[in-house]
Structure to design on (158 residues):
């Protein structure tokens, strides 16, 4: 663990990290999020094959997650705009909810953790949006980084 923040300069002001001296390497990150419904709401969704009046809950959330990955630098001020080689959003039903995994890959000078976290978050938000007519008692999270590789240090959640 480092004891210094990378987005704060010597004067204490926010700044974008200069990655120009970093090597171009393959970078990969996976993040996850959970969406939990009240049991009766989940049962209604399951009975309908996870389809809503707005369309396939899972497929629309996958597209929202991929779009979130691509928009990360527009949403988070100090993120670099990086080329995305691959964005994969996988959404699986679990007891009373969904588990979302978003995996992002690039070849570049900075990692894709924020893109993976944004993709997982946007997919979860999309599911909430599509289901809020049934209940507002939907819980989002935890959302967390599961793994990253290709930078100064790799990370794998236990």
């Amino acid at each position: 663990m480092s004891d210094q923040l990378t987005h704060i300069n010597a004067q204490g002001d926010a700044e974008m990290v200069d990655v120009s001296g970093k090597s171009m390497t393959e970078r990969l990150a996976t993040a996850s999020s959970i969406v939990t419904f009240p049991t009766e709401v989940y049962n209604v969704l399951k009975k309908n094959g996870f389809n809503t009046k707005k369309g396939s809950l899972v497929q629309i959330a996958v597209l929202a997650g991929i779009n979130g990955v691509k928009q990360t630098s527009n949403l988070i001020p100090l993120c670099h705009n990086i080329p995305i080689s691959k964005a994969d959003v996988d959404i699986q039903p679990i007891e009373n909810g969904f588990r979302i995994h978003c995996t992002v890959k690039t070849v570049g000078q900075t990692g894709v953790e924020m893109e993976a976290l944004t993709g997982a978050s946007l997919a979860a938000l999309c599911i909430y949006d599509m289901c809020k007519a049934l209940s507002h008692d939907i819980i989002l999270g935890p959302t967390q980084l599961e793994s990253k590789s290709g930078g100064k240090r790799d990370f794998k959640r236990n």
